[in-house]
Amino acid sequence: MALFDFLEKDRTVAGPGFNRWLVPPAALAIHLCIGMAYGFSVFWLPLSRAIGIKDPVACAKDLGFFAEVFATTCDWKISMLGWMYTLFFVFLGSSAAIWGGWLEHAGPRKAGFVSALCWCGGLVISAIGIKTHQIWMMWLGSGVIGGIGLGLGYISPVSTLIKWFPDRRGMATGMAIMGFGGGAMIGAPLANELMKFFATPTSVGVYETFLTMAAIYFVFMVCGAMGYRVVPTGWKPAGWTAPTGAGSNAMITNRHVHVNRVWGIPQFWLIWAVLMLNVSAGIGILGMASPLLQEVFGGKLIGVTAAFNELTTAQKASIAAIAAGFTGLLSLFNIGGRFVWASCSDYIGRKGTYFVFLVLGFVLYASIPSLSHAGSLALFVGVFCIILSMYGGGFATVPAYLADIFGTQMVGAIHGRLLTAWATAGVLGPVLVNYIREYQLAHGVPKAQAYDITMYILASLLVIGFICNLLVRPLDDKYFMTDAELAAEKQLAHERAAASVVTGAGSGAVTSPMTVVLAWAAVGIPLAIGIGITLQKAAILFK
């Protein structure tokens, strides 16, 4: 076991000269890799013709589900591949909830390293499944094992960042969680280029792409995990004074709640509901953004006065390209919103920030039907961009909200349990949107109007969220750990004051500014490239 001693939490406590600005790029290195989960749809079309190469080879109509799962002579349906998304987010939420407490004791470095093993190992198992044409191996590899890696990687930096940036909790978590939203912007173009490179007359190039990306991601994620440092006990930023809980800081506690108690605390369930309802509305929009734009505006997108069903195949291809630019633009606002809204929450408070999300969101969702009927494309696009910024902002703001209410000692574990709200929203949002749309169309509602009722329902979800947020109050004293309980928890978490002896060579030295610059460049350059590619795709909207 001595071989892996470098992963132990007490080997990661920062020395006196450590620069806290090295922690956010370490978190970004992990989040940018696991964020590729959002971009997996880039593989669906190639995988749907993995046997036929040029055209899919359909399975026999009388072939049962299990026979189709193990079949090696016919191609997979995209609907079967799409189950990967459900598995991703169900296992992300469940693994974060189950192992969040372990993370607090084991430390972020060990959690980040295990995340790398699961996420990248899952890609390798999936690659074997693609090579042998066994879709269950993809579900197991990337969906289950990779999903566990997603959960551990997602929450690995939360507690550490909040403790390093007590003066700017929202900004710190916003920087890291921004990476999860941006992972697909880097990974999807990379995957496309790799598939083109590896494609042959007998292979669509996907399994080779999985193996290559697993190797690249493993290096980045391990480097990120090794970059984590834990805050020494008693450390605080120079010149910063902890809030006392009075006046404008009444919602910020300086005490701590144990993770095992949160299931029985009303405020936890109120914040759970706020996140779930905000995400349900946003994820519903995100999943249908492309078809919604095409079906609502139809030929107007290319200057033709024709409904969507009246367009030729070539015209539909043209507006599909415009819709792809639209989804690219939404992804940028999703990412930017994570940093901007979370940073704003440091000034207007977490509760106030969610009030903005819920009130402004209600107005915007309710206005979409009127904007679509009026044919106002610019306003329509603008409204969706703001909505998606608040969707991302909700994810980035909630860790700081939890730290304010429940304290910082076990906020990573509490955040892990709260992510079950995301898993719930991942089912509720798309189901609401898709089934209501199908019902509308089945009853003769024109495609351009089939989303009206949906928008009003999503707006109503935010009204419920507003009420839940309104009810969030500071906790009763009975929920907090006693001094003895807190001391015992700190002992389990291997907390101590300094790391000059055991953290390794140079841990007490002052961090070089060049080290900070290089660390940010390692994550900033790929992210900038991804943003540039996305902006190029989005530019077609304005031509």
What does this structure look like?
With 543 residues, this protein is an all-alpha fold. It has two domains: 1-56 and 65-231, Growth Hormone, Chain: A, CATH 1.20.1250.20; 266-474, Growth Hormone, Chain: A (Up-down Bundle), CATH 1.20.1250. It is 67% helix and 0% strand. It has 19 helices and no strands. It has helices at residues 23-34, 44-47, 65-70, 78-81, 83-106, 108-132, 135-155, 158-164, 169-198, 206-227, 266-297, 313-348, 350-374, 377-406, 411-418, 420-442, 452-470, 483-492, 513-538. α6 (108-132) runs antiparallel to α7 and α11 (266-297) runs antiparallel to α17. The protein is globular, with a radius of gyration of 24 Å.
Structurally, how many domains make up the residues?
2
Q: What's the CATH first level of the largest domain?
A: Mainly Alpha
Number of helices: 19
Silhouette: globular
The pLDDT mean sits at 88
How is this fold's topology laid out?
Layout: H1 23-34, H2 44-47, H3 65-70, H4 78-81, H5 83-106, H6 108-132, H7 135-155, H8 158-164, H9 169-198, H10 206-227, H11 266-297, H12 313-348, H13 350-374, H14 377-406, H15 411-418, H16 420-442, H17 452-470, H18 483-492, H19 513-538
Helix pairs in contact: 1-9, 1-10, 1-19, 5-7, 5-15, 5-16, 6-7, 6-10, 8-9, 9-10, 9-12, 9-14, 9-19, 11-12, 11-13, 11-14, 11-16, 11-17, 12-13, 12-14, 12-19, 13-14, 13-17, 14-15
Structure described in brief:
The chain is an all-alpha fold.
